[in-house]
Design brief:
260 residues, alpha/beta
């Protein structure tokens, strides 16, 4: 990552050479929030440009401003917490996941596998779930005669079904979730179909607790539910208590919890 030679220029990704434009100083703006300035020009800061609320804007070098565009959270990349948002037309499946990362840090999960994508394969998701201590997904979900599933691709070409986690016909796990403390399938119908669903499959595959939803849920309310749940989970509430409070605050009134 290389700083430009002048302020207002775009920061670029380049091969590392050790130049002063590639060396960065991290300073604290406030608790858990940081600014990054290049050694080549330490009076300027990495900034999210003119429109930090939009995808695709350039990251630029700017003088310090008071509008938070030059303030950053820093997270360790790892596998303790997997957060997966699948892009969909007219639906926000990613913003709430970014907002709960500070709650997860407070809960002790210090490394993140954050996936915001048009597509992930079932096998890649299965492998990532097995490596995670907490799993949270935002996508579209649905139900069929054999269980429930969530969509893993914007074009609906990939999905994971409850039977891809636990085979209810043979009563055998398909993947090993024994390291998973909590799995949240925040999508429509993931907790429908009696006990033959995604959260129960996750618990039968070894997860300590899992949450799904019995009915169709509004996208904005689902995001509000997710943020509310982790606010109270961070405070030491049980999964049931945090889910119940999140239901009351968001008006979703649809969750189901399975646990060991």
């Amino acid at each position: 990552m290389t700083a430009p030679s002048a302020v207002d220029g775009s920061i670029t990704q380049t091969s590392y050479t050790g130049a002063s434009t590639q060396l960065w100083k991290i300073t604290t703006a406030e608790d858990d929030i940081y600014r990054l300035s290049p050694k080549s020009n330490p009076s300027y800061y990495m900034s999210a440009g003119d429109s930090s609320a939009e995808d695709g804007v350039n990251i630029e070098m700017r003088s310090s401003r008071s509008d938070s565009k030059d303030e950053w959270y820093l997270y360790l990349n790892g596998t303790e917490a997997m957060l997966m948002g699948i892009y969909a037309n007219f639906h926000d499946h990613t913003t709430a996941l970014a907002k709960i990362m500070s709650n997860l840090l407070t809960c002790g999960y210090e490394s993140f596998n954050f996936i915001a994508t048009d597509y992930i394969s079932r096998s890649d998701l299965q492998n990532s779930m097995e490596a995670s201590e907490i799993y949270v997904s935002r996508s579209h979900g649905n139900v069929d005669d054999n269980g429930t599933y969530i969509i893993l691709a914007k074009n609906n070409t990939s999905w994971i079904h409850s039977n891809d986690i636990y085979n209810f016909s043979t009563n055998t796990p398909v993947i090993d979730l024994s390291d998973c403390d909590l799995a949240l399938f925040v999508a429509c119908y993931t907790g429908a179909n009696g006990d033959i669903n995604l959260p129960n499959a996750a618990v039968k595959a070894g997860a300590k607790a899992a949450v799904g939803f019995k009915d169709d849920i509004d996208c904005d309310k689902a995001n509000e539910w997710t943020e509310s749940f982790f606010l109270y989970y961070e405070q030491g509430k049980t999964v049931d208590e945090a889910a119940d409070t999140a239901d009351n605050e968001s008006g979703v009134d649809s969750y189901v919890v399975f646990s060991q």
